[in-house]
Amino acid sequence: MVDRQTTKTKRAETSRTTESTAAAKASAGPVIAADRYVPGLVRAVANKLEGGASRFYRKHYTIGLSEWHILVALAADPWITSPILCKNAGLDKAAVSRSLARMEEQGLVLSRDTSGRSRATALTAKGRRLHDRIAQAAIAREEQLLAEFSPKQVDMLISLLTSLSKAAAGLTDAAPKGTRRTKAAASE
Fold first, then answer.
1. Residue 18 neighbours by CB under 8 Å, 6+ apart
2. What stretches of 4-124 show up as alpha helix (H) in DSSP?
3. Cα 168 from chain centre
4. pLDDT by residue (tens digit) across 112-159?
5. Residue 71 CA to chain centroid, in angstroms?
6. Under CATH, which number does the domain 64-153 receive?
7. Of 63, 50, 77, nearest to 134 (Cα)?
8. d(CA 152, CA 99)
9. Distance, CA of 123 to CA of 77 (rounded, Å)
10. Reduced to 3 states, what is the DSSP secondary structure of residue 121?
11. Model's pTM, two decimal places?
């Protein structure tokens, strides 16, 4: 005896699968290959690096990644205002404001009024000592990350990442014209 409900359910499932496969083929839009899509690969690497660094800095130095970025920016350029600090540290205004408040409470930074509505910030001696300790660990982590690369490959990587960063800064909200990938596919 044939179970009519089971047969009906199987037919409906087959029909839905066929419809979804047909719909996917009909769209004929480009399919992004995750292992070849540069923005996705860069994001994945950045997420892994940031996640690992954040856990490391919190565990060993009780500061987060935002505070580390601020320490680095202030060590390179003391007595800068928040807008410049945001740019140099690559952080948004709210993150910088929260981090600076915590860092000031911890005695890592101090701020002073400037000739306007803004405040300038610099590392204290305690903040500079913390920066120097973490910098040694950060350099060791970088060496570990790049251990399988030759010096020439490291230079090439830095050059490519610098060029990629400049190109990313130049992206606009305008719709892009034909891409090298779509042009190549069209010529095949």
1. none
2. 4-27, 38-61, 65-76, 82-89, 93-105
3. 12
4. 988 777 789 999 999 999 999 999 999 999 999 999 999 999 999 999
5. 18
6. 1.10.10.10
7. 63
8. 37
9. 10
10. strand
11. 0.73
